[in-house]
Structures are given as C-alpha cells and as structure tokens.
Amino acid sequence: MGSWQDDVENYGRFLAAHASYEEARAVLLGVPMDYTSSYRPGSRFGPQAIRAASVVLEEYSVVLDEALDSNGVCDLGDLALPFGNVDRALDLMEGAAGRIFSEKKMGGFLGGEHLVSLPLIRAAHGCYPDLVVLHFDAHADLREEYAGESLSHATVMRRVAEILKPHHLFQFGIRSGAQEEWAFAREHTRLFDGDILESLQRILLEVGGLPVYVSLDIDVADPAYAPGTGTPEPGGCTSAELLRVVWAMKGLNVVGFDVVEVCPSVDQGERTAILAAKLVREMLIAHRVRSSR
Amino acid sequence: MGSWQDDVENYGRFLAAHASYEEARAVLLGVPMDYTSSYRPGSRFGPQAIRAASVVLEEYSVVLDEALDSNGVCDLGDLALPFGNVDRALDLMEGAAGRIFSEKKMGGFLGGEHLVSLPLIRAAHGCYPDLVVLHFDAHADLREEYAGESLSHATVMRRVAEILKPHHLFQFGIRSGAQEEWAFAREHTRLFDGDILESLQRILLEVGGLPVYVSLDIDVADPAYAPGTGTPEPGGCTSAELLRVVWAMKGLNVVGFDVVEVCPSVDQGERTAILAAKLVREMLIAHRVRSSR
Amino acid sequence: MGSWQDDVENYGRFLAAHASYEEARAVLLGVPMDYTSSYRPGSRFGPQAIRAASVVLEEYSVVLDEALDSNGVCDLGDLALPFGNVDRALDLMEGAAGRIFSEKKMGGFLGGEHLVSLPLIRAAHGCYPDLVVLHFDAHADLREEYAGESLSHATVMRRVAEILKPHHLFQFGIRSGAQEEWAFAREHTRLFDGDILESLQRILLEVGGLPVYVSLDIDVADPAYAPGTGTPEPGGCTSAELLRVVWAMKGLNVVGFDVVEVCPSVDQGERTAILAAKLVREMLIAHRVRSSR
Amino acid sequence: MGSWQDDVENYGRFLAAHASYEEARAVLLGVPMDYTSSYRPGSRFGPQAIRAASVVLEEYSVVLDEALDSNGVCDLGDLALPFGNVDRALDLMEGAAGRIFSEKKMGGFLGGEHLVSLPLIRAAHGCYPDLVVLHFDAHADLREEYAGESLSHATVMRRVAEILKPHHLFQFGIRSGAQEEWAFAREHTRLFDGDILESLQRILLEVGGLPVYVSLDIDVADPAYAPGTGTPEPGGCTSAELLRVVWAMKGLNVVGFDVVEVCPSVDQGERTAILAAKLVREMLIAHRVRSSR
Amino acid sequence: MGSWQDDVENYGRFLAAHASYEEARAVLLGVPMDYTSSYRPGSRFGPQAIRAASVVLEEYSVVLDEALDSNGVCDLGDLALPFGNVDRALDLMEGAAGRIFSEKKMGGFLGGEHLVSLPLIRAAHGCYPDLVVLHFDAHADLREEYAGESLSHATVMRRVAEILKPHHLFQFGIRSGAQEEWAFAREHTRLFDGDILESLQRILLEVGGLPVYVSLDIDVADPAYAPGTGTPEPGGCTSAELLRVVWAMKGLNVVGFDVVEVCPSVDQGERTAILAAKLVREMLIAHRVRSSR
Amino acid sequence: MGSWQDDVENYGRFLAAHASYEEARAVLLGVPMDYTSSYRPGSRFGPQAIRAASVVLEEYSVVLDEALDSNGVCDLGDLALPFGNVDRALDLMEGAAGRIFSEKKMGGFLGGEHLVSLPLIRAAHGCYPDLVVLHFDAHADLREEYAGESLSHATVMRRVAEILKPHHLFQFGIRSGAQEEWAFAREHTRLFDGDILESLQRILLEVGGLPVYVSLDIDVADPAYAPGTGTPEPGGCTSAELLRVVWAMKGLNVVGFDVVEVCPSVDQGERTAILAAKLVREMLIAHRVRSSR
C-alpha cells in the first residue's frame, strides 16, 4: 500500500486536531450525555456536529493571528456512555477528565447537556484546588433540585458552587431562572446580568493567574445566533459579542473548558455547531501557551 | 380515582394559565384566522405553537422580578372559526373579545394574521372610547384596499385608524409599505421609523393613563429573531430590543394586546413561538395590576 | 441584442410548455386558492412548486413512448386571486376555465385546495353537458356543509354531484369521511374503496367516449409517496399505482383535469411536487390527440 | 360568562377523547420517557405530537363503520416523569397503569421509548395473569443487557418474556437484532419474520379469548411510512398493512396497548404521528365492547 | 383570447422587472454555477430563490423613497451553463456580461458561487478600464490556489486583483482567511476588518466618480441573518447594517453588481433569499440614474 | 495513558470497519464528487452521511445470518478531490480504485454522483477484462453527451458500455430517459424495465462466475424510500425489494460495487443514508468469501 492514501480524508476529528494524546498539549473529548434534558434532548450528537462543522472554518484565526495547526491538539472522540444511567455516566466522565488534568493537558470538552460540566469541573478542581469557574449561560442552573432530582442540567451550577471556594463561580449572561435561584446567587455566586463583555472585563484582574475553567452553554447567545439548542431563551448576545468574550479571556490561565447544549436536530444549516466550533478553535489557539505550562 | 393524577400534565394551555375564566384577571384567546394572508398562510397554528413553546420558559421574569403563576390568567383555547369566511370570522372574534373587555378583564389574543386585530380593537374601543393603539410592525398595513379587498392584513391599520380618535394610532418599527401608505400616515397616524424604544419613550407621557391596546406583529423583529412569520422583512429589531419595549410599557394602562403573524411551518426550532411566548409572559406580568382595576 | 440569449433559461413555466395560448391544444393554469383549508393551508404555492419540480423530469415518457415537447402546451401562469374572498375567487376561476373549454382546448389546472375543482368542473360542464368526473382522493368530500360553510374543500364533490347527471361522478381511493358522506355516496355517486386500478378498469367501458374531467387530489397516494399535502391520510396507494391509473385512462376522452392539494411547505425534498409534475406530464402526453379535436 | 365559549377549542386532548376518567371505558395516557434511547432521543414529545396530529383525522372509521365519539375515551394527558431517572419513572408508570387496569378500563399508552412497555405490561400482568403480549417491531428488543444496562429499549422484550407465561410473547415484523437475540427467541418467544398479517392470522385462534396487550413500535412500518422514529430500519411494512393488522385483531380481548417510538423531531410533515393517531383511533374503536366488560 | 389573462401571474421574474432587454436600463441575469464550492454546493439555485422571494417585498423603498416599478429593469433569467465545466461556464458568463456592459446597461448578477464574479468583473473591466471593485464578504478569497486549482471561489479576488489597477480592490467585512491571504492583502488590496459602514464611508470620496462594481457575498452578514449560504462564518454584520451600506453607496457610479452565495437548500424560511432580494431592489433603485448615463 | 480510552468512540468510520488496509478483504472508499450534477448537487456529503447512519444498524444481518464484524473491512475515508475539476478528479479515483482491485480486495465505493462509477469501473475492468456491470438506477444514463459535455452523470453508462465487452452491461429499474437512450439500449445494453428482482433472476445463470461490478444509484428506489437524492423519480421499487435484490446476488462473484447519489441535504431523518448503509452492510457480508479469493 502506497502514499496515495495521503489523498484520503477522515472527518471524524476536529479541524487540525491530528496530534496523538501523548504529544498533545490540549485534548478534546466529546461527552454525549443528554438524559436529564427537560425540554429537547439531542445534545448527545453535539460533539459529532461540532467536529463536522469545524471543517467549514479556516485553521487560522484572524484576530489571534495564529493558526490551529501548530498547536498540538488531540481529539480523542466521544466517551462511550451508558444510555439512561446518569450516575455511571458522571463517573466515567470524571475519570476521563481526571486523567487529562492530572497530566497537565488542557481539557476541552464538547457536550452534551450542561450536567456534564459537574464531573468535568470536579476533576479539574481535584487537580487545581483554587479553580475559578467562568459560567456563560442564559439560565442560572442553580436549583436545589429539579423534577425531584438533585443531579440535573438545571442544578449543575448549584452543585459546582458547593465544590468551589466561596465566590469562585462567576456567571455571565444569565437571563432566566426561578426566583429561588436569584436568592441563592446573591449569597453564593457572582452573577452578572448586564453586558457580558463589560462584566467579564470587570473581574479579569481579580481572577488574575488563578486556574480557570470556562463552562459555556451555547444558549448564552440569542436563539438567532444559536438556534440549535435545547432550551433557547430570547434576549441573548450576538456571536460577535461571544467571540470578543473569548478573545478577552486570552490572558487568563484557562486549564479546561466545555461548550455544551449544542443540539443538532434543531440546528438548521448547522450554524450553532459552526459557532461552537469557532469558539473552540479560538479557545484552543488563545490558551496554548498557558495550558502547556 | 386518586391523587396520582396530580402527576399528569396537559400541554394545551399557556404556561401557568390555570385560572378559571371567572377568577381570571387576564384572559388568553387564540384567534386562528389566516385566510387573507397574501404570501405564506399558516398563522392559524400560531396560538397552538405559542402555547407549546411557553413550557420552555420559566414562570418567573427576571427583569420584572415577579412570576406568572401568581397572576390569575385563564387560557380559553382557540376560537373555532369558519374556514374561508372572513366576515363571519370577524364577527365571532368581535363578540368574544367584547365579552372579555366588558367584564374588565385584560384580553390577550394570539393570532392568526393581522386582520384579527380589527375586530379585537373594535371590541376594545366599544368598552374604552378613548382607546390608544400602539402598533408594532414591519409593515404599515395602511392600504385602502388590497387585491380588491378592503378587509385584509394589509389594510387592517387603516380600518383601525378610521375607528379611533384622531392620532390615537401610534406605529413603531415600520420599514415597508406602499407609497400611498406613507402619505396616509403623515395625515392620520403617528408613524415612527427610527429606533423603537426611543420612539416609544417619547410618547409615553402623552399616552399617560389612557386605555391602551398593544398590537404586536412579530415581524417587527428582524427575520433573524423571528423567522417564523408570513412576510419576513429584513432590517428589524432584535429580540432584546423587543423585550425592552415591552418592559417600557409597564406603566401604561394596557387593557388588551395581541401577538400576531407567528407562522409555525417556517419557524425552525420554534424560536419565533418562544419569543412570542416570552413577550406574552412579560405582558401578562407587567400589566396585572392595572388590568384588574 | 443578439442570439446569446438562447443560452438563457426561465423557470417560470412547466416543462416544455412553450406554446402560445393560440397555438396550444392544452393549457395549464395555476389556481392558487387555499382559503377554506381546514388543517394546513399552503397549497396556494402548489402550482409554482409543480412547475419548479417539473424540470427534474425528462420530457419523454418511457411508457407512453412519446415526448412532451411535440405537444403544444401553453402554461399561462397562475390566476391572480383575491386573498380570503372565496366567492370572487371561484367566479374568476370559472370565467378563465370557461374560456379555455369553450375554445376546445384541454384544460389542465394546478391547485390549490380541492374547492377549486368546483368552478373548473362547472365551466367544463357548461361546454360538455354529458361530462363525467373521475375523482381520485383519500377523502369523500361529500359533506353538505363544513364548519357552517357550504363551499369548502370538504363539500366540493357534493356540489359537483349536484351539477352532473346522476351517477356521472366516480370516486376512487376514498378511505376517509364522515358517516353521512357514505350514506350520500350510496345514493348519488359511484364510490369505490378497493384497489384503484381495478376499480377504474371496471368502469372504462361504461364511460366510453363521454367527455371526462379528472380531478386528482394528490392525497389519494399514501403520505409516504405524497407527504406534501394538507390532510395526509395513511393507507393510500403508491406512486407506481397512480401512474398506472393515469396510463389506464389513455383511451378516454379527457377534456380537462386538475391536480390539487400539493402543499410545498411540508413537501420535503419536493417529492410530492415531482410526483404531481410527472402525473401532469403523463396526462398531457396521453390525451393530446383527443383534446385537440 | 356565557355559551359563546362553546366556540372555543383546546388541542391538548386526543380526537374526541372528551370523557371524564370516571365515565371512560378507555383511558389514554402519555408516557414521555426517552432516556435510554441509544440513537435519536425525542420520543418524549411523541404523545403530544400524536394528539396534535389526531385532529387531521375524521372520528369515523370507514372500515370499522363506527365513530370514535360514541366511545367513552378519556385522555389524561402525559405522566410527569423525572428527567434522567429511569427507576423512578418506571415506578410511576407502573403505578398509573395499575390503577387503570385495576378498574377494568382499557389502557392506551402513548410513548415514549419502548422501555415504557415494561412497567405497563407489568401492571397489566398484575391484573391479568394470563396476559398475552403481541409485539410489533422492527427490532427484537431481546438483549440481556445493552451498554451495560439491563433496563433499556433494547432489552425490554427480554424483561417482558421473563414476566409472562412461557410462549405468551408473540413478535411480528422483526427484521433486526443481534445474533444472541435470535437464539433467545427460538427458545422463549414466538418470533415471526414473514408477512405480518399472515403471521398474525395464524395465531388468532390460539390466543382466543385470553387477555391481550398490544405493544406497537411504530418502526415496524418502513421508514417510508414512519420516518419519525429513533432507529428507522429499512424493509418494513406499509401503513395499509399495519391498518389491516389492527383490523384483524378486532375479535381479540385487548385490555391494553401502547404505540411507542414516535419521534417528532424527525417526523417531517407529522406523518408518523398521523399514522400513530390513526392506529390509536382504530384500536379504540375496535376494542370498545370487550374492554368495557 | 381576451383580456382575462391580465389576471394571470408568472413568478419567473424578479419583482417588477417587466422591461424588455432593449428598453431596460438595468439587466438582471442569473449565473447558476456552483461547481468549485468546497463545502455546501447548491448556490446554483440562488437566482431562482431570490426571484421567488422578491414577491414578498413591496416595490417601494421607504428609505430611498422611490419604487422599483418605474425603473426599467429586465430580468433575463438564468444563463444556461454546462454542469461541471468551469472554463466553458466562465467564458459564457464573460460573453453575456460583456454584451450588457458594452450597451451601457447596468448589470445585476445573481449567483451562484463567488467565482462567477471573475468573468463578470473581467467583462466590466473590459468596458470600464478604471473599474473599482467593492467586495463585501466574510472571506478574503485571495488564495493563490485552492485544492490545486487557480480558479476557485477561494481565489476569485486574487484573480480580480490581478486584473484591476493597483489598489482598486476594496474589501469589507473580511473575518476569515489563511495567513497568506492577509499577507497578500497588505500589499495589494484595501482590506478593512472593522465596521463595514464606517470603512466604506472613509473611502467614498476616494472612489468619487470612478466606475464601480459591487461584489456582495451574502455571507458578509452573520449566519443569523443569512443562514442560507455555503460557508457561514459567525461574527458578521446584521441585515440592517448591510442595508445601510447599500444606501451609503447611492452616490457612487455603480455600473454593475453581483449578489452571490445564496444557497437555498439551507435557507430555512427563505430569509437569506429575501435579504438578497431586498439588497438587489435597493441597488436597482439607488443606481438607476447613474447607470443609465 | 491508560486503557480508559477503550471507552472512546470515533464516528468517522463505517459500522465495524475497523480492519487495517493490509488485513482487509474489502475496502470502503468515499468518492465525494458532485460537480456534474444537473439538478441538486450535494451528494459529495453522501459518504459521510452513510457512515454516520450506519451506527443505527446492527452488525448482524438477519437474512444472511452473519455479522459484519467478522469480515475484515477497512474504511479508508474519503478521497480528497479538487473541487470543480472533473478530469483530475476522475484520474484520482481511477488510480485509487486501481490499487484496491490490483491487490484483489473487494472495493466498495460510496458516492458522490453517478459519474464516479466511470473511473471505478475502468479500474475494475483493468484488472478483470471480463467484467460484467449490473446497473440499478431510475435513469438510463446513456446519453451521448449532456449540456455539451461527454463526461456527466447522464452519460456515464454510455461511457461504461464503450469499455465493456458487448452486452456486459445489465440495467435494472430504469424508468426515465430520453428517446435516444432507449434506442441505444436496444442495440448495446441489456435494459430491463419490469420487476427488478425477476429481471435479475433471469440473468443470474448467464452471469455465472464472471467478475461482477454492481453500480447502484439509490434513486432506483422510489422517492418514498430514498428521498435524499438529486433527481428523484416517482414509480420506483421499495426498500424491501432492493434488499431482496442484494440478497439474490449472493452467489455472484462481485469484485466491486458502488452506492451513489445519496444527497444528505434533502434526506430528512437520514433514511436514504440508512438504506444505503444497510445495502452496503449486506453487500459486504454477502460477498466476503468470493472477494477474498
């Protein structure tokens, strides 16, 4: 068999993520769980959709003036999860993420519903006790329980707040929730409901060099920009604003991130997946130096 | 039969609209007419779509800091209308709306095409002779006749202007029309073509405590935010701007409102219906005190 | 301006229908009314969709072994109808069809909802008093009135039966209706509920050389074959069976036909429109000799 | 408040299912679980879609020559289930179904994924120890476990077989499975892989007057007829054949049935939901006498 | 045949473009090529979609206060191109455009992929040697070659730059490209990556009365506003901004323009086509005086 | 890095095609060309869609009573082709296929448009001079040229007939073409227009042990079963019939096959891709013994 196979392409990986696990500084992993979704399930296909959409993008970021292909990214594929078994699935995710963080690689995770952030942040927190979480979302996700369950996409940030040091959870873009969630936020989190970029800039110095995990629910963008999501909430930001937010985090010490709640079955023209892929590309390029320390 | 039926849900009503007609201060009624649509019909399914979409929302409004479920709203369902018979349909609507207004309940109507606003406003005007109409729309809807018909979605605001006191019709967001309509508007209505929120704020004091009917054609928003509509017109406002407009009307004495021209067959991901449902929720919360007087 | 414009194409006409009205033996006319639709409107866009889909077809019919382009067909475009005014619309259709039939051209009509068949058959009956109507449909359409209206897609064949000579209405493929319709059919029409082709073959001799109008509601086919229609009814025939039915009518004296209830907004991949276009092509080829008499 | 509300419609119930629970002989209940789906989730919206689609149908069945509206059907709505908690959800379903069966009402259940059949059949078996299950499906669903889980849509009929008396599980239309499932079927179930109607007719006498539960996975039909389902499998039956199967069961003593795996997010034009609704209508009409015993 | 045919409509032409080629001052021509598309082909159906969408618009432009119907526009239809043969197709386009420009008519071209601009601009340059090109796009399109081909949608503006006088190519809205393209742009084009309207206003005086060709790739708008395109790129402008850009060019001497990369198969609700049609309408109205000189 | 990566999945390969090229007896290769498509392009995404759809299937074939995973299949991915350059693309395909055939592996090719069959068959013919081609299609594809081009999806089988020995091209399911194609077929090919399975069975003995290449255009199935294709033609076979055809070829000496014209952008619910994937699975299982000789 000869070199003609160089002309063959496989679409199963994220754009330019050709590194082996060992050589990679950053690792992408799909976490296709959507069992606790309360409205539209289907985000289990989010990781595949983001990968497929990534090929519409260039590898070069105009704003960061750097290309992805020099970056040492490994795309592991999707974690195989047991359908319908939430506890086992969370354990599997925490185990996989723990390995990645313990080897000081930056972990980039593709959801899946928002509950996946819990085991991922737990794993990051295990390696980085001072961890700060920057949470971008339309919904507060701070309920004590939801439909009688304490583990749910609607409770995930309450569970996260219980893990982190006080006030290490920052929330941006929140525009929907129950009254109890706002009460909780006033006591326990740093919730911003104004312009996302301005809010972020106000806390950058405070975060300084602390290890940061970014959890980005794609529904923080308006449904006009991210229609392919489970619980779209009108009144969000634009894709241009979201990109500026990612660029503004360039100086932070981001050790891990997730992009969750991309739901392909309602993502006409794949544009939510394309937006997610572009955000992932910019995150991977922006944080390559820090994450390799 | 026991209490286990408390675990059973019915999706045929708007979010939290569990009140009986008698106890309700606000009444929702679907008016599923779309016979005079000139481009894409299908807004007859708008009311059902708005109800179904409403469950994706919280009952609590972050901005108004109040929840819907304490509000006394009755959702009557859809008015049964004779297919293709415009005159009989308009009569049925005027009759139903007249009952609601005569009992001093706030009437919230879900369209349907824009012509439904004519009998609804007629009924409101019958109870409130000083009625002011605030009209949000991409189109002026001021033609004398359309395709030879004087009763049409394209003539509805001309007919409304003929009912109201002079200059009691305010039009916002208008960006499309025939030349004759602009000529008419200069004489007979208060048409604003600039920023919607600014325009509204300029006239709030003038409207003061007069009884107000709000007629909101969802196509006032840009097709990016409200793709599910019959005659999308590029260049409109965002969903965030539209929400701010609704919040700005909080102090007014709104006695009735409609949200029209939601067309589910082109509403990918139901996001126009979700936007409409959120606007309806905010209207219901914002005007609960006044409307119960 | 030179001959380079020979390389220019216009998609506004049915496949190969380049004849002028004067020279044409067969005339196509769109009748885009859908105001009395009781479920999904949108068949007003049927004629345009059928034309656009026709270009996917060859002009040559393998089974009839003849091509469309030698056939003298004029496609007039769509009749401009007043939105929402049923009576005026029916009058306009009857007038146009009357002209076509009075000049002994075969009239082929593209709907539109099924009520359009009433004025078209009335016009045909005006020129051909012995007219026989062959009605292919999932629904009997024999109600006395529907939602209080006597003119409706659900009453159209009752109205047709009142015009024709006794037992000149033959109905095929019917698998849905109200109990009263079956009672009416037993007295007044020739309703067949078995295999369509067999039923047709049984009555061919009886019809003989009488002038025939074929009214084909596309929902006679199963929704698997014709998903793009207003009221799909499971349990229908295949597209292959429908084509055989059209070929079986070759020997009849067809003076006019309609294909109705194609509803593009639910016609994924345009395959209902393509099926309709193929049926129209076969009708135009099959009946070219007779229709030119 | 007056009689004008007679003109108001609510679409939250199945066609003509206006009876109260107490007076009803047959009870419809939605069981919107889809957490163990291995490919496309979304069948949780199946019950709502089937209800919405039912309005496109007539209440009268041409073949059974009887109408639904004289039948005493109550549509309870959907059971509220905890998202992601399989065990609690199954318990809730078994409890609700147990009440219905213990009061000798016929239970008609709208799924949801196929795992919902397990608690429903358990409840039926609790009241009818001789219960026979007729299972229509493309997939055998006989695995010992799936993705490490013993409770799954792919194991449900293995669990059912463990409950029933030997050889009381009849399987029809099966055309996909793992090798181990065929081995199990040869020992423990009555699996037919030929023509569905013929297979059914062969066992009708054997079943005789035994209480029967019908579990119908909509994917038994070919994807051409039922595209809106989670795991479509080419090579299935037509909708006409499926209707004949339902009619052939008329003489049996059906005490309960489910129609599962309708997945609206991929059900273009709602035709899978319409097919399901027609099957439900025919089941409700066909079994009204027996079920009221 | 009588005057009743005045009631007949044909949808094959752009809104109000009823002029003959001879009398027209502006000529519309579809150039349906999409063979070099690297992601989603399908823009070959762009011209038809733009025409069909144009009927949703009024003929009157509120901002320009003038109507299209007084404008003398001829819509020739689509150029018939050989499928898959790039060279022959480019020759045919250059020939047709050359005729239009040589007769001093304004040429408006509807794509098709972006490579179509090369022969069109070549033709314009043949008649207007001082030609300035204003290029609006998300992508720089400045590669030397792409996938081994020098003629591609990704190289088109490099080829254009080679034709024009130095610095006669102005590029706006560019937010994606390879690193080499930026290097080329710095030397050879006037590339602006900030706000489009501001950038344009800065160069208006410089362009002055020079003949201008406007090449507008619809993906310059954000995918929220123009989802129906082959390679959507998040972070673009709004439809309102794009309209203001068109209005700002009113004083320029525009001799030709194209609107390219509208891809109907992913254009849900046709809103990209509607946006394109509105841009075309405004271009035709804005430049009617100059173009007729 | 440890064994936890065994839980990770990659969706870029066909179901169970885990063999390396060297060990594989059968090789899958995507050939994503669609430049000469005359109606809807987009089949370039066919190979990816077929792979993604394959995971919905079991690895075990009930009818062939054998599973795919014991079969030694390598999925190479897609050949990288130059967009818009037909000649270079055909050369690349012929080269790749030539390598596969020369190493006596069975080649399975996923299209792409039908023109891809030409270089693939050329390569197969180079290794097997007695090659017989079995061609399943709705269209004859026998034109001398199309739109002025001799290399086109509409001419491909004419070119194939020119390569093969006389009467070594068998055509099944053909129901559309131009008159000239039928004339050519009568002289040069074995074209069957009746029932596909019967026609095939009639020629099985004649083909005997000759090397066979199967070229299957998915549009041979009716659009009800295969809506996701470029030029759907009503009147085709069912998916069950197509499966029976594949099973009937089990005894033949199939050395290569292609499945072409799957067009995902119009393949709602991915069911054409699923059908194609099932056909590929059955081909791979049925021909594993012979092909390894």
* Silhouette of chain A: globular
The protein's oligomeric status is homohexamer
Uncertain segments of chain A of ≥5 residues (pLDDT<50)? 289-293
| Largest interface, counted by CB within 8 Å of the partner chain's CB | A-F, 26 and 26 residues
SSE sequence of chain A, one letter per element: EEHEEEHEHEHEHEHEHEHH
Largest sheet of chain A: 8 strands, parallel
Can you summarize this structure?
The structure is a homohexamer of 293-residue chains. Chain A is an alpha/beta fold and 293 residues long.
Explain this structure to me?
Six copies of one chain form a homohexamer. Chain A has 293 residues and is of the alpha/beta class. Chain A has nine helices and eleven strands. Chain A has helices at 46-54, 86-102, 117-127, 156-163, 179-188, 196-207, 239-248, 271-286, 288-292, and strands at residues 8-9, 26-31, 60-61, 66-67, 73-79, 106-111, 132-136, 169-172, 190-192, 211-217, 253-260. An eight-stranded parallel β-sheet of chain A has the order 5-2-6-11-10-7-8-9, with helices on both faces. A two-stranded antiparallel ribbon of chain A has the order 3-4. In chain A, a hairpin with a 4-residue loop joins strand 3 and strand 4. The longest helix of chain A is centred in the N-terminal third of the chain and has 17 residues, at 86-102. Residues 289-293 of chain A have low confidence and may be disordered. At the A-F interface, strand 1, strand 5 and helix 2 of A face strand 1, strand 5 and helix 2 of F. Strand 1 (8-9) of chain C pairs antiparallel with strand 5 (73-79) of chain E, so a sheet runs across the interface.
